[in-house]
TrEMBL record:
This is Uncharacterized protein. It comes from Zopfia rhizophila CBS 207.26. Residues 475-512 are annotated as: Disordered. Residues 475-486 have a biased composition (Basic and acidic residues). SMART domains: TPR (SM00028).
Length: 512
């Protein structure tokens, strides 16, 4: 017997063994390349050969055996056969821990792989115990890329368990360590920024999420270009965050810059996993901007009813100077504010406020944000709760009221107001300013006859119905006029583009 697990043979591996293993590794790398290029059939054909070949290599010396277990597990993982992948990753970890020790980079990579495959099987508690247990064996002063990748994976585990504050601590620790060990323009550092941005978004800290993801996007573009896999991953996440911040103009520019003209350019597996959520975000953008024709066109493209679409290159929104109380200049700014709320310790906390001219019942704040401010004990349950419904007709009942002090993000004047606290089931907003407060403080110009829901629960009379019908017709005419102006502007832009094409090809720009 050439090798018994746990005993290293004395003679070196035969040249034939090394050559066969090298060929399998080459096949595996080819499979990964086909997968990245959305050619799944060719990838799976090579992975099947790898599984057969690596299985025969498990009887070799410990180096080849651990490598075979690793590649075999990764091959199973590429085919979503998680149970087999877990078993082989654990064997790889066992061998490397014995022969290399717990701090060796190869061992740490194996442990991280085990944690990841446990998460993929929805076993977050097992993943937490594995990562935390192994990190406890390491020298606290150890500074290596592989260690901080494992720390990041532990942060993802805590995020999966909805233990966000602990998750944030590990994400920040991992990002700091990776910056110091491998630098900003490293794939693992980009992953750390990406997952930190996703975590901030999940916690409702959208301003922080946008900032982190914009930096990651810039690094990706400068390092690998604006069309690579890392750039696409970060850009889709950034666009989703901007949609949730009601920055619809910026979100359109972000999402259309990376979407393909045709679905045929993307493999169906990659399309479903990565592109469909982004396309749905874009449909939400067009719907919110009352561009129903664009929304219908994108929806038809997503459903395969039309072959391709030509994305319009949307210019980035120009920054404008806005006074604290005056109506903002851009349509996007009109309904989205960044504010700073004073927390229990007297420190300002950034939050996103929606100016909702259809909310006729006070100002509102999420319970999640109140907890982050350390103001939960300030919530009063002694109040008269308004009975309101959301845009879908679902009843929304406040869980309490709280008085808070805040100011515009770049302003100096402080305001104080009482807020109804959203129930946990309606906790996806930070802050909403209702129409009464908007008019009182002259925040935006409000057309009161266009206010429909969010409304008080009461039966409409004939006069109310007639007023609503008039308001709806007025809004329809305004949207039609806006659409006509937009079409005219696009036609003018197209004519100008045709003229400019005659001036020479050297001034051609990139299409989005």
């Amino acid at each position: 017997m050439r090798f018994i697990l746990g005993k290293e043979r004395k003679q070196p591996p035969a040249a034939q063994d090394s050559a066969e293993l090298a060929e399998l590794n080459r096949l595996f790398d080819e499979a990964l390349d086909f997968g990245r290029n959305d050619n799944q059939p060719e990838a799976e054909k090579r992975l099947q050969k790898c599984i057969t070949g690596y299985s025969k290599s498990l009887s070799l010396n410990y180096e080849m055996a651990s490598s075979s277990h690793d590649y075999l597990a990764r091959s199973y993982g590429q085919m979503l056969r998680w149970a087999e992948a877990e078993a082989h990753f654990k064997m790889c970890e066992s061998i490397r821990t014995k022969y290399y020790g717990p701090s060796h980079p190869a061992t740490l990579r194996a442990v991280t792989a085990v944690v990841g495959v446990l998460l993929s099987q929805e076993k977050p508690e097992d993943a937490r115990k594995k990562a935390k247990g192994h990190l406890g064996k390491l020298d606290p002063n150890l500074a290596s890329c592989e260690k901080f990748v494992l720390v990041l994976e532990l942060g993802r585990v805590y995020a999966n368990l909805r233990r966000h504050e602990e998750a944030l601590s590990f994400h920040q620790q991992a990002l700091k360590g990776l910056k110091e060990t491998v630098g900003l323009n490293h794939a693992q550092t980009i992953y750390a920024q990406y997952f930190l941005g996703k975590l901030y978004a999940e916690m409702g800290r959208l301003i922080d999420a946008e900032s982190v993801l914009k930096l990651a996007q810039e690094i990706c573009e400068n390092t690998w270009g604006a069309k690579g896999a890392y750039y696409r991953m970060v850009t889709f996440a950034l666009g989703s965050v901007q949609v949730n911040m009601y920055k619809f103009v910026e979100a359109e520019q972000t999402l259309t810059s990376i979407l393909p003209a045709s679905k045929n350019d993307v493999h169906h597996t990659t399309w479903t996993a990565h592109y469909v959520p982004a396309v749905r975000d874009l449909i939400r953008v067009y719907t919110s901007l009352h561009r129903q024709e664009d929304a219908q066109k994108v929806r038809a493209w997503m459903n395969g009813e039309i072959e391709s679409v030509q994305w319009v290159n949307v210019p980035k929104a120009q920054a404008t100077s806005i006074s604290e109380n005056s109506a903002p200049q851009s349509s996007e700014e009109s309904f989205h504010w960044d504010i700073k709320i004073i927390d229990a310790k007297g420190n300002p906390v950034l939050a996103t406020a929606l100016l909702d001219t259809q909310c006729q019942s006070g100002n509102w704040i999420s319970q999640r944000l109140v907890e982050r401010l350390g103001k939960s004990s300030s919530i009063s349950r002694d109040f008269s709760a308004p009975s309101v419904a959301d845009a879908n007709g679902n009843s929304v009942r406040a869980s309490g009221v709280v008085t808070l002090e805040f100011k515009r993000h770049r302003g100096n004047r402080f305001f104080q107001s009482q807020f109804f606290v959203f129930p946990p089931s309606s906790d996806h907003f930070d802050v909403i300013f209702g129409v009464e407060y908007i008019v009182q403080e002259n925040l935006v110009s409000v057309s009161e006859d266009a206010l429909v829901p969010l409304v008080l629960h009461k039966k409409l009379g004939e006069n109310d119905k007639a007023a609503t019908a008039i308001a709806e017709e007025k809004r329809r005419q305004e949207r039609a006029a806006l659409e006509a102006r937009r079409q005219a502007a696009q036609s003018g832009s197209a004519s100008q583009s045709q003229v400019s094409q005659g001036s020479g090809s050297q001034q051609g720009g990139q299409s989005s």
